[in-house]
Amino acid sequence: MNDLDRQLIALLRENARMPVVALAKKLQVARATVQNRIARLEQDGVIVGYTLRLRPEEDAQQIRAIMSVAVESNREEAVMRMLRGHVAVVTLHSVNGHWDLVAELRLENLEAFEQLIGSVRAMSGVKATETSIVLATYKM
């Protein structure tokens, strides 16, 4: 991956629906160059999908939280598999330090939030959890 690829990825992160013509203009390259680069990045598995972001006011009714999870040493894969399968888990990170996993959660209400916390704590292999509700997001 070179500088042009990194610039292209940065533009796509900003707006994944930006037309190829607009991307080419911003990057000062031919439209075909952008199309070929995107195709190659997708084929190589660098770009694995596209997503959307909602205006904060559209997402305001959802509960957002960050959950840290400590896992028994030989159970991390199994716990990750279970968390990946839960609709409320938006992202899942393996991290170093006191916690083994960090999950970003999005839920409809406090009842669903409480149920999710209980189900994660009851998972085989989970030693401990700590969850914080996100009050505000300042940079996206």
Automatic annotation (TrEMBL):
<keyword id="KW-0804">Transcription</keyword>
<dbReference type="GO" id="GO:0043200">
    <property type="term" value="P:response to amino acid"/>
</dbReference>
<dbReference type="Pfam" id="PF01037">
    <property type="entry name" value="AsnC_trans_reg"/>
</dbReference>
<dbReference type="GO" id="GO:0043565">
    <property type="term" value="F:sequence-specific DNA binding"/>
</dbReference>
<feature type="domain" description="HTH asnC-type">
    <location>
        <begin position="1"/>
        <end position="62"/>
    </location>
</feature>
<dbReference type="InterPro" id="IPR036388">
    <property type="entry name" value="WH-like_DNA-bd_sf"/>
</dbReference>
<keyword id="KW-0238">DNA-binding</keyword>
<dbReference type="InterPro" id="IPR011008">
    <property type="entry name" value="Dimeric_a/b-barrel"/>
</dbReference>
<dbReference type="InterPro" id="IPR019887">
    <property type="entry name" value="Tscrpt_reg_AsnC/Lrp_C"/>
</dbReference>
<keyword id="KW-0805">Transcription regulation</keyword>
<dbReference type="InterPro" id="IPR019888">
    <property type="entry name" value="Tscrpt_reg_AsnC-like"/>
</dbReference>
<dbReference type="Pfam" id="PF13404">
    <property type="entry name" value="HTH_AsnC-type"/>
</dbReference>
<dbReference type="InterPro" id="IPR000485">
    <property type="entry name" value="AsnC-type_HTH_dom"/>
</dbReference>
<dbReference type="GO" id="GO:0005829">
    <property type="term" value="C:cytosol"/>
</dbReference>
<protein>
    <submittedName>
        <fullName>Lrp/AsnC family transcriptional regulator</fullName>
    </submittedName>
</protein>
<dbReference type="InterPro" id="IPR036390">
    <property type="entry name" value="WH_DNA-bd_sf"/>
</dbReference>
